[in-house]
Amino acid sequence: MLRFLEQVGILDIDLCGPSVPHLLNIENSDVHQCPEGWVPVYTDASQTLAVMSIGFLLKNRDDAIIWRGPKKTAMIRQFINDVCWKDVDYLIIDTPPGTSDEHITVMECLREVQCDGAVLVTTPQAVSIEDVRKEITFCKKTNIKILGLIENMSGYTCPHCKECSNIFSSGGGKSLAEYAEIPYLGSLPLVSNKQDIIQLDSMQSILTRLTTH
């Protein structure tokens, strides 16, 4: 991603299932404070990728967040307003599935900021497609531009015989994009190593389409 963008921030607002620290191998990092607010966790010495997640604030990765809506809303507002994001050129907000308090709070907080839009992610099976259909409706009703849709977990290529098996079916994301008349950005296969995903040609193609949008 950093080959395409300059200073990038990732805000993980999936409060009940914060997975971004694990995916980026920065789970044991600590959040510090400065006069401007919380300092995000950087993944590299050049500080080109800044990350904030409630996962950094948990004493144990097995701890559960058992909060009602108002407390979730307050936490998300604090992440957006009180974290020192001033150096980032792009802020990517990773939301949980659905159309819940988290999504409404982000939308309200960003009213005064020019939001480029939303990238929707689905898997090929029908149950996921149904959820994303509601996300599309949410974006249209709240005037959030949809930059495109990605189909994740689209096929698994055997490392031995190289045959691709569509474990969760295939083509659901593309069909939904055509039905909703939104851009289809591409598909990502299942991979056994999370570090391999950025090397995929399909991922590079998706990032190119987004950054030249």
TrEMBL record:
GO cellular component: cytosol
UniProt keyword annotations, A-Z: 4Fe-4S, ATP-binding, Iron, Iron-sulfur, Metal-binding, Nucleotide-binding
Pfam families recorded: ParA (PF10609)
Keyword Phosphoprotein among record annotations: no
Gene3D superfamilies linked: P-loop containing nucleotide triphosphate hydrolases (3.40.50.300)
InterPro entries found in the cross-reference section: Mrp-like_CS, Mrp/NBP35_ATP-bd, P-loop_NTPase, YlxH/NBP35
Molecular function terms from GO: 4 iron, 4 sulfur cluster binding; ATP binding; ATP-dependent FeS chaperone activity; metal ion binding
Single Gene Ontology BP annotation: iron-sulfur cluster assembly
Domain of life per record: Eukaryota
Keyword Iron: yes
Name used for this protein in its record: Cytosolic Fe-S cluster assembly factor NUBP2 homolog
Organism field: Diaphorina citri (Asian citrus psyllid)
